[in-house]
Structure formats: structure tokens, C-alpha cells
Amino acid sequence: MEIYTDFLVLGSGIAGLSFAIKAAGLGTVAMVTKQDMTDSNTNMAQGGIAVVQDQADRFEYHINDTLICGGGLCNEGVVRFVVTEGPERIRELVQWGVEFTRSTNDPEQFDLGREGGHSMRRVIHAKDLTGQEIERALNEKACQEKNIRIFENHIAIDLIMKSSVIGQKIEIGDRCLGAYVLDIANNSVHTFRAKFIMLSTGGAGKVYLITTNPDIATADGIAMAYRAGAKIANMEFIQFHPTCLYHPDAKSFLISEAVRGEGAILKLKSGATFMEKYHPMKSLAPRDFVAKAIDTELKKSGDDYVLLDITHRDKDFLMSRFPNIYEKCLAFGIDMTRSPIPVVPAEHYLCGGVMVNTNGETSIERLFACGEVSCTGLHGANRLASNSLLEAVVFAQRSYRRVADLLSSVEDAPLPIPAWDPRGATESDESVVVSHNWDEIRRCMWNYVGIVRSDKRLERAQRRIDLIIREIEEYYRNFIITRDLLELRNIAVAAKLIVTCARMRKESRGLHFNLDYPDKDDRLWLKDTIISREELWRKT
Ligand code: SIN
User: Fold this and answer.
1) Dihedral of the CA atoms 252, 254, 255, 257 (nearest 10)?
2) Which of 66, 241, 255 has most ligand 1 atoms within 8 Å of its beta carbon, as the pocket-test mutant?
3) Catalytic residue annotation
4) Residues 56 and 173 grouped into a single domain
5) pLDDT of amino acid 36
6) Which residues span the domain enclosing 286?
């Protein structure tokens, strides 16, 4: 089947939905999402959206906090417009039906939470289920738009490039024409052709063994963009969230930083505090400091976890501010109002991704990227908490404005695209290859490319990942594709990109800490690590 539409949106989190809702005013939209519409990283977001609201707060303060957290690598121009355009985007979300928690003193105002690295209270939220509330409202809105057609349980395989259709080598100025998409339930591949393609597929949590991300976070957009020849940047900056619930039966449940914002204190199992040794903001320091401090303390003590203690706060307050976290902990036998919560760091957010300009355009014509999949220059070497949903809505608006300007100049006679070629692939009787390599990549990345890295560990990781990639490519060529195989292929590419960027950066900055280069080197490394498929080919 061939589907022709004005806009193809891959992914259904806040970035994809915001863009799709706006683009539906310009033309037809196909939204492709690999599970249900609500299965996205956005849906899991607990904290909220950082935005200047308080009388005492200033854009300059938010800009400054973002720049400090970003370790010298933020693009100041981007930081400035994201912060200043934020309040308008929040008004729009409210108009679309998102219900943020209001202040108990003044229902006209939002309740403002605080998180690590912020000098002021500025995180608007819907209790501790902010992402779920945003997804609910935006999904309802998208479903009402006649111009939006939704394809659930469909996963994009690869982008279709003009160069491959006309049999040329990838070159600068190559154009994206659409994507081949697997209908998972029916096991058939469709051609989606579009005038503009928006990648909003989220992050890469599943590259790591322990992550706060849902199962869908398999770096699909980054891997596809890389294979298509797009420029990718700063993949070494993986943000580890310091406080993921430690419990054998809890599948990576996040304990929001907002809990520390309300006074929770990190302690060792002995009850001793430790953050004062690492940062003047103590438990509310930026995440790179907190995660590294916990890692160091755990290695020193040999313990499996540290404790997050908020038992000094009022029970009613905790139950009303954090109903989700309270219930979840209770289900695992931990009453957070009476005993501290055992926590460990876990992979949480990818600060690098597909490079985009200030309009969300990638280095490939007609291909846009928005949300965690993209690298906009906002986060630099370390993202400030709750800046990511803000980035998504600001860039969705900017991309929308850009496509609105370009739409009339796009020709109407599209190139013929060949249907997907299954290349005589057969059913696999060796699915163990997929599950084995899945585990191996994630374990290898956790052990060798985690919070603390070294040249030796990175080299080891590179050797293993390269080997696994060769094995996966052979398997991919010979056997019928499945969702599991596509996701494995994508996490393998993302792992390679993370290791490559980490090996390039010969210093320590923000989220990248290498024991062999423990200091920041502003003379040589005050710059992004930018890679593309062409460049990596040339080097090998
Ligand atoms: C959290 O609630 O701690 C996560 C917020 C974020 O990652 O920005």
C-alpha cells in the first residue's frame, strides 16, 4: 500500500502531537506510532515543564540556570528563544485542554515545583503525572482533527531518500521523500510518501540495561536519520537520572526530582548525608553531579542503593503532591511518608541526537526533527531538569512556521518510489540472535559507557558493538523483519554513535566523564561532536 500525505509524523509524544495538531491546519497528516498513541516518553514524564511564571522569576535566571547546567556547550541564542517563547506555548497547551495543577493560594496561578539546577520554583506540573495529562489532552485534540490519520502499531523501517530512489550516492542536499513502515500486526510493509517528514520518535533509553524510559525508547529516529546520512551530534551526553526506584520487581520506576525539590535528602544506607561533599546545592545539584556522586559512593561502600528521605514532610502534602509515586512505592512495600526510598541512577535522557537548526530542520532537505530525538543546542553537555517538554513545544511551533512558509514552493509531481523490496528474506528459526544481542548491547553500554568512562572501557565497547552490528546486518539481510529486529538494529546503531562520540571527546564535561581526561578542556573541546555516516565511512 502507498500512502501519500502532506506531512508524515513519526512518533506520538508531545513533539509529534504538537506539530501534527498545527500541521493539520495546513494539510493532511499521517501519524505513525509503533504501539498505542499514548506509549511515549512524554507519557512517563513526572516532573513537568520549566517556564518562567513567578513574579520574582526572570527569563535571565532561567537562561542562566540552563547555561550553567549545560557546561559551556549550550547555544545561547537557542536557550534565549526557548525560554522566552515558553509562556506562549504553555497558554496554548492550556487552550488545548491540558490541566496543570493550580496554586492552592491562587487558582489563577500554576503551582510551581522546583528541580535540580533551578535557582527558582518554575516547574509547572499536573501533580506527578504531567506527561500523562499532556498526552491525554493532545491525543484527544489530535483525534478530533479530520486531517490527521493515525497509524498505531506501525514502525518505520527506514527513511526513503531521493538519492536511493534515483540510484545516486548520498550527497549534501539529499532529500527525504518518506519512509517504509512495517504494519506490525499484519506483517506487511507500506510506503509512506510525504512533502515533509517530522521525526519525533523520542530517545534511546533502551540502549542501556537500566533506564527510566518505556520499552519504545529504542532510538529509531536517530538510527534512521544516521542511515539516511543526517548529521548527528553530542551522543556522548547521556543523562542518568539519579533517583530510579531500587526494587527487584520495579521496572525502572522514576522517583521525580520534584521530590528533592520539596526537600528530600539523599543519604547512605547508614543514614549519613553525602551530597555536601560534591556540590553547594547538595541534593538539589544538577543531575550530572548527583548521579556521579551516587555512583562514587556506591562504588566506595559496595552498597546496591542509596536512600532518598522525605519522611520529615507532612503525610497529606506528600500524598496530594506525589500521588503516583506514593502509590507505586506503597505497592512495593515502601511507605515514603515513613521510610526513605531506596534509589539508584538510571539512563534517563539523551542530550544529543539529530542536529537541527533553529527551525527544527535537519541536514537533510524536508526532514525535520523535534523532541528528544533532536539536538537543538538547548541542552549542551547536560540538560536542565524539565527543559525538554518546553523544548519540544517551542520547536514544534518553529517547525510548523517553517513548513507553512515552504509548503507552497513544494512541487506537486513527486518522484516514483519503488515498493519495499523484501529481498527474498525467509522466516528466522534463530530468534535467539535477536534476544542475545539485545541483552549484550545493553549490558555492554551499562558497564563500559555509563556514568564513569575510560579509554579502555570505551575501546572494549567499540569492539563489541562493531561485531554485533555486523552480525545484526547479516541477520537483517537474510530474515523477514520484525519489530524486535528493527529495534535491535536501531539500538545497535545508537550504541555505536554514543561510543564514537564518547571516544572523540578527550575531556570530561557535563554528562561525559572519562577517567583518562578528568578535566574540562575549553581550549580544544568547547564544541559539539558532530558525526555522519559519510564521515564514519571515510574514517574506517
Ligand atoms: C523528573 O521528574 O525528575 C524528571 C524531569 C525531567 O527529566 O526533566
Assistant:
1) 140
2) 241
3) 287
4) yes
5) 84
6) 241-346
User: Is 540 a residue whose pLDDT tops 90?
Assistant: no
**Dihedral over Cα of 442, 31, 36, 185: its sign:** negative
- Residue 172's pLDDT is 61
CB within 8 Å of 429: residues ≥ 6 apart: none
Decide: 218 and 491 in contact? Cβ < 8 Å. yes
> Which residue puts its alpha carbon closest to atom 4 of ligand 1?
47
> What is the number of structural domains in the chain?
2
| CB 159, CB 149: distance < 8 Å | no
Q: What is the dihedral of CA 120, 124, 130, 134, to 10 degrees?
A: -140
The mean-pLDDT minimum among 58-72, 160-174, 328-342 falls in 160-174
Q: Looking at the domain assignment, is residue 342 inside a domain?
A: yes
Mean pLDDT of 153-160: 97
At 530, phi and psi to the nearest 5? -115, 130
Could you please report the per-residue DSSP string of 75-118? -HHHHHHHHHHHHHHHHHHHHTT--PPBPSS-TTSBPEE--TT-
Q: Is 47 in the pocket of ligand 1 (CB under 6 A)?
A: yes
Residue 123: name the closest of 470, 324, 390, 447 by CA: 390
**Residue 335, domain CATH:** 3.90.700.10
Q: Is the CB of 382 under 6 A from ligand 1?
A: no
How far is ligand 1, taken at its centre, from the CA of residue 386, in Å?
A: 6
Categorize the per-residue pLDDT at 300 as very low, low, confident or very high, splitting at 50, 70 and 90: very high
Cβ–ligand 1 contact at 242 (below 6 Å)? no
In the chain, the amino acid numbered 132 is Q
Ligand 1 centroid – CA 447 distance (Å): 24
